[in-house]
Amino acid sequence: QQQQQPQPSAQQAATIDAPQQALGVAILVTAQVAASFLGVHQDIMYKKYGNVADEMLFISHVCSLPLFALLKEDLAKHVTQLLSSDSFAADKGWWGWWLPQTLPFVCSVPAPVILLLLNILSQYLCVRNVYSLSLAAGSVTTSLVLQVRKCVSLLLSIVLFGTPFNAMQGVSAVAVFAASFAFISATPAHKPADTTKRVAKKEKRD
Predict the structure, then answer these.
(1) Is there a contact between 49 and 138 (Cβ–Cβ < 8 Å)?
(2) pLDDT digits over 86-117, tens only?
(3) Are 164 and 15 in contact (CB under 8 A)?
(4) Do residues 195 and 51 lie in contact, with contact meaning Cβ atoms separated by under 8 Å?
């Protein structure tokens, strides 16, 4: 009989995962720094050209599309999995009995496809409003709002879906809300960017 391999202790598992955790933290910090530079660049663009939120939203997403070519095999595999998934009618969740009665036309569509389309719609509304908020309130306020939104999403996932929660996450949540309160208390009202500048320049040229 084969002997079972001993399971690593919690301390050993933490030691094994330490390089991966350090890499993850480094990636997050790099992303935050890059997002800060992007926010400053957006403020400069708004001051120079006025309300160009829609143009910046379009350009930033179009320029990133070619990068998905690097993941074409992985994307194709996941598309196949989506199309071969069960429909809502066969699903055992709460929508398994609610959707067939309310929206019968979606019963034949794979459930993950519907969820993916809803996620795309919600992400579009979220990103569009983020650019509008950046125009109205500035990049620093927008970054802070996004951090609070992520923290609230984490808390909702813990309450609704039972996501594991530890003391470090609690400390981080308290720090996010405390920093948000301190920033709101100490920051004067932000003056929105001049959205008529581009129109005035065009009328002057005409």
Answers:
(1) no
(2) 776 655 555 555 555 556 666 677 878 888 88
(3) no
(4) yes
58 pLDDT higher than 60: yes
38-44 contacts at long range (C-beta below 8 A, 24 or more positions apart): 38/139, 39/134, 39/139, 39/140, 39/142, 39/143, 40/139, 42/131, 42/134, 42/139, 43/134, 43/138, 43/139, 43/193
User: Does the pLDDT of residue 203 top 70, yes or no?
Assistant: no
**pTM score over 0.85:** no
Structure tokens at 171: 């400390």
Which of residues 189 and 150 earns the better pLDDT score? Answer: 150
DSSP string, 166-183: -HHHHHHHHHHHHHHHHH
pLDDT at position 10, please?
47
* Separation of alpha carbons 145 and 39, rounded Å: 13
- What whole-number distance in Å separates Cα of residue 197 and Cα of residue 50? 5
